[in-house]
Amino acid sequence: MMQELFHPDLIEYVGTAAGHTIGMVIPSIDPIVRELLKIPETYRSLAILTSRVGAAAQAIAIDDAAKSADVELLIFELPRDTEGYSGHGNLFVLGGPNVTDCRRCVELALKGIDERAERIYINEVGHMEMHYVARAGRILHQIFNTPLDRAFGFVCAGPAGIAMVAADTAMKAADVEIIWHGTPSYNLSHTNEVIIGITGDYGAVSTAVETAYEKASLLIEAYGSKPESILHFKK
To answer: Which of these, 88, 87, 108, 85, lies nearest to 96 by C-alpha position?
Structure first.
């Protein structure tokens, strides 16, 4: 969970959260690093959040945090990771005109990640991530093409074949639309999973995600134990 600053000289460090997430800031980016990362001159400071596990929990939390801070998403990537399981980790880089806004964004996002991580599940070999929110903001719009202020749902599971069944189940369960998808070789880093992002009425989105969760959970359980939240799972 989020921790207090552990070393007074680490001005970049903000805190940690579930999913082995760390939040940091760069108060004034070096010109060479700026050029390397193609950071526009508009942004003097950076907010950085990166995790070993998960993506949607972090994206939703950052989307909420960005509503209270003057920041813009500059980089989003899904590196192959999940600490040896079948999925991904994440990298978010946001730019702001000053370090105060960047730090506020990171602080709020870390709190939100600790709450959202409840819905990232793993067992001995498989994983799932299932989320839905009533109103998407600009970060979710930028990443997943979610219509602004519309409900957003995220269905993810691995191995990939299980997620295909979960996605099919979600679409049959309610009147929703797929607005983004990823497979091992499309939009992902060859991770062993499939992801769909959906939109529609909030009730339909929540029904689709919950139904997908039930189906994927039963299939992943064929490998061993019932998938548990990363907040409670013990290897």
So the answer is: 108
What tokens appear for 161 in the block? 């074949």
Q: Locate 221 and state its tokens.
A: 């359980």
Q: What is the pLDDT of residue 6?
A: 55
d(C-alpha 22, C-alpha 112), whole Å: 13
Q: What CA dihedral angle connects 118, 120, 121 and 127, to 10 degrees?
A: 180
Mean predicted lDDT score pLDDT of the chain:
92
Q: Give buried/exposed letters for 210-225 (b at 16+ CB in 10 A, else e).
A: ebbbebbbebbeeeee
Q: For residues 36 and 26, what is the distance between their CA atoms, to the nearest angstrom?
A: 15
How many Å apart are CA 78 and CA 52, to the nearest integer? 10
Residues 45-91 pLDDT 10s:
999 999 999 999 999 999 999 999 999 999 999 998 766 666 789 99
